[in-house]
Amino acid sequence: MADESGTRDRHARPDPDGFFDRLDPDMCVVTAAAGGRRAGCLVGFASQCSIRPPRFTVWLSKANHTYRVARAARFLAVHLLTRDQRDLAELFGGETGDEVDKFARLAWREGHGGTAVLEDTAAWFVGAVLRRTDGGDHVGFLLDPVEWGEGRDGPLLRLSDAVTIDAGHPAD
Predict the structure, then answer these.
(1) Is 27 exposed, middle or buried, given 0-12, 13-18 or 19+ CB atoms closer than 10 A?
(2) 45 membership: H or E segment, kind and range
(3) Quick one: how far is CA 109 from the chain centroid?
(4) Considering the entire predicted model, what is its pTM?
């Protein structure tokens, strides 16, 4: 931050919004199954984090129903959506599993470890949960891919395509 004279104060905490506001990550739907319950949510915080071995991390909000199911899950499924699948993004981002069975509205199958794999997505994988990391209001799930597939073609759904979806889970 700069003071009135234009000199930067190297001890002031910077405002990262200028950086974060420029990001436009791919959105994905993460599904979890544990203890006879299924859940899924729209996720914007996710990334490949290792090449060899291949690893991927998804960050789930602690306020989200899917997080509560994922805490006990051994596997999570991660699905990429195409831009024309906004209805699916609205279902998984705008509804809460506390109130709605999202899976009753769409085609899915049981994947590795009992995880729900959504049909007709751009691509998907099921990953074994290797580690959970508390990151503040989200928890990161480090995944080791064990099953995967591809489906529909088209440009991927990005944050800018989904920014107007009101979160279905309660805000803290």
Answers:
(1) buried
(2) none
(3) 19
(4) 0.86
Residue 13 is predicted with a pLDDT of 61
Tell me the C-alpha distance between 5 and 3, whole Å.
Answer: 5
For 85, list phi and psi in degrees, rounded to 5.
-105, 35
What's the pLDDT tens digit per position in 124-160? 999 999 999 999 999 999 999 999 999 999 999 888 8
For the chain, domains (ranges, CATH) are: 19-46+63-127+148-162 (2.30.110.10)
Distance of alpha carbon 133 from alpha carbon 113, whole angstroms? 21
CB of 39 within 8 A of CB of 68? yes
If one compares 167 and 121, the residue with the highest pLDDT of the two is: 121
